[in-house]
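Format notes (please read before filing issues)

Several people have asked whether sequences and structure tokens are stored in separate files. They are not. Every record keeps both together, in the order shown below: the sequence lines, then the token lines. Line labels are part of the format and must not be stripped during preprocessing.
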Amino acid sequence: MQGAGMRNNRTRDRQENILRILSASETVSVQELAERLKVSGWTIRRDLDQLRERDLIKRRHDSAVINSELDYELLLPEDVQLEAHQNLAAKRRIGLKAAGLLQAGQNIVLSAGTTTTQCALALKERKALSVLTHALNIAMELSVEPGLKVSCTGGDADSHYFTLVGPVAERSLKAHFFEVAVIGVSEISRKAGLTVRRVLNAAAMEIRLDHSSKVIVLADSTRPGVVGFVHLAPLDKMDMLVTDVKPPKAFCEQLAQSGVKLVIAPE
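Then the structure lines:
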């Protein structure tokens, strides 16, 4: 059973790599995929057949292309998909409101997350925005929009969250400065400030905060008042909090004292 599990893991990892290669190229041949992944052409064709059955790709003779109608959320693990659907209507309103706060010509850094993804979707058909992101799903969604210039940080692929992480991603962030950072956080509280769940997320997020002239935090009403595992920054590090429901009075007062503008996304 262990051997079968290992084979399944290798197949899954290889197919995820195929999808990443295809997402960065217009079309890729079976031979090129076999050479890059160091497997046989027969193995690649079997992988492509399985990916086609899942409607993730389209076959063209002895090559393949990504399915342009692909819902990239389907590639995420089930627990991440579940989080994406929690309070979804509110996240959409927050994302739409945040997108409306951005101005043409700005360069922005857009972090990964279920609410920031909704902001990215709301940016479609916008003009003259430069977007740097470490979220592969966001990059894929926005890269087809002619009015947007989209760049990725590079780094190690985290298949659980569909993000690019690690030292390469952090070096890329350090090399850039942004007019606006649009970020999502795991939790926000009066005492702990902005917190996240993973140390790996905190290091890159701190760079985004330090290298941005304006910081907009997106958080639905389940976030305020909760403390995450890793401290990120005090409340006054953000300039604006966009949420769906007005927080309790004490929290609003703390935001005002910290110089944070509260923006409520309307029903």
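For reference, the curators noted about this record: The chain has a mean pLDDT of 86. The longest helix spans residues 2-23.
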